[in-house]
Amino acid sequence: MTESVTITDNRTGESIEIPIVDGGIDAGSWKKLLGNIWFADPGFTQTAATESAITELDGEAGVLRYRGYPIEQLAEKSTYLEVAFLLIYGELPTPQQYEDWTHAITYHTFIHENVRKRTLEGFHHDAHPMGMLVSTVAALSTFYPEAKDIHVEEIRNKQIVRAIAKMPTLAAGAHRSSVGMPFVYPDNTLDFTSNFLSMMWKIAEPHYEADPVLSRALDVLFILHADHEQNCGTTAMRVIGSSHADPYSALAGATAALYGPRHGGANEAVIKMLTEIGHIDNVADYVKSVKEGKGRLQGFGHRVYKNYDPRAKIIKETADKVFEVTGKNPLLDIALKLEEVALADDYFVSRKLYPNVDFYSGLIYQAMRFPIEMFTVLFAIPRTAGWLAHWRELVLQDQKIARPRQLYTGSGPRDYVGIYQR
Ligand code: ACO
């Protein structure tokens, strides 16, 4: 079998054979034959925007691997910080590299006092923490102007450490400010997730001790959310990064993309939906209304997965461990019933709509007392590692600036008409 496609321009009879490489065909070859014919692909459903060696996703088979390692093994055996290193630098760290990496991140968790006083505390009292996060991440670029030197490896690495380290501090700070609680400074004696929980929940105790089960559960959730190849937020990161903007500005754009309900905002939407359903007896009617086109089943369906999202399986197991500590989230029964009804219904089966990562994550976050507004923030913290991995890869690939074409469908040429002649 020849691994190529042949394209013929029926207007001229000219043909071109294009080899299939790594599952794609080169648009450059297409361009040779069809210079002014653009590929119409809104939403990039059939467009590979880049080559990437970071995350492999087989949506039909329900497979997810970071740098070749199955997500199931990483969730069971690794830590978020180790996974972050793996995603960014391509290999699991040696013991010395891991120690240096963990140490560097632990010692970059503090934020400049002006970020706290002037930026975080400058928001309205009921500001959404995601809006605060987007803005404060962008503000970091003004505190580290050297970050613009994206081609200097040492400077790049410094911003990577800073961004991963400061994200939980900004996230917890946004929460504290939105509930009128004083800011809690990072505690460098704690591990990454325990420190975050301390900054979230510490009140008057001299040293906050997170429950180790909850701390580990959060670490597992962070591993699962760390990367997901060319999703909307990562694409935003790469598009902004391709203009050679500094990484904080690009991260702010990626965080903003994640904010939307079709992306990272879905876990918030799931809890609202389950609360609205209210009781397992109402599940069948709710599913019926979805099938009639009255809204979507939140936490179901995925652009790439046409099978059970492998992360959803792990999250379901994690939920059981968390509920042993926190008590069961009363919405769990509704969620389980909803999954059962949907997966037995031809509407969902024929469209290959399965639970995605967001279907169960919100139940865990809620049981751990996180307010709903923090759910997407909890997604943004670990996704920072993935965004930075893609940003670094893009810089090293020296990719062209992202600049797609359009199919113009507007008015033809016409002359300006003065305002009183219209
Ligand atoms: N509930 C009901 N029907 C759905 C759902 C859903 N959640 N998702 C898709 N469909 C239906 C569509 O109505 C469409 O049906 P049709 O062919 O009869 O018109 C078909 O399935 C295909 O849907 P598309 O919108 O074309 O699929 P797309 O790949 O564009 O959308 C998306 C993917 C946005 C995730 C979608 O499934 C959705 O809105 N899900 C709910 C929100 C959600 O859970 N988002 C989180 C995604 S994971 C993440 O970002 C972390």
Task: Note down, in words, how this protein is organized.
The protein has helices at 27-33, 71-77, 80-89, 95-106, 113-119, 129-143, 153-178, 192-201, 212-225, 232-241, 247-259, 266-277, 283-291, 310-326, 332-343, 346-350, 358-367, 375-397; strands at 4-9, 14-21, 24-25, 55-58, 63-66, 69-70. It is mainly alpha-helical. It has one domain (83-399): Orthogonal Bundle (Citrate Synthase, domain 1). It has a 3-stranded antiparallel β-sheet with strand order 1-2-3. A 3-stranded antiparallel β-sheet has the order 4-5-6. A hairpin with a 4-residue loop joins β4 and β5. The chain is globular, with a radius of gyration of 23 Å. The mean pLDDT is 94. The protein binds acetyl coenzyme *A.
> pLDDT under 50 segments (min length 5)?
none
- Mean pLDDT across all residues, rounded? 94
Going by CATH, the homologous superfamily would be Citrate Synthase, domain 1
Tell me the number of helical segments per DSSP (H or I, 4 or more residues long).
18
CATH class annotation? Mainly Alpha
Number of extended strands? 6
Main sheet characteristics = 3 strands, antiparallel
Strand order of the largest sheet: 1-2-3
H-E string: EEEHEEEHHHHHHHHHHHHHHHHH
Which small-molecule ligands are present, each listed once? acetyl coenzyme *A
> Which band does the percent of strand residues land in?
5-15%
CATH architectural arrangement? Orthogonal Bundle
Percent of residues in helical segments?
40-55%
Could you tell me the CATH topology label. Answer: Citrate Synthase, domain 1
Rg, alpha carbons: 23 Å
Domain unit count: 1
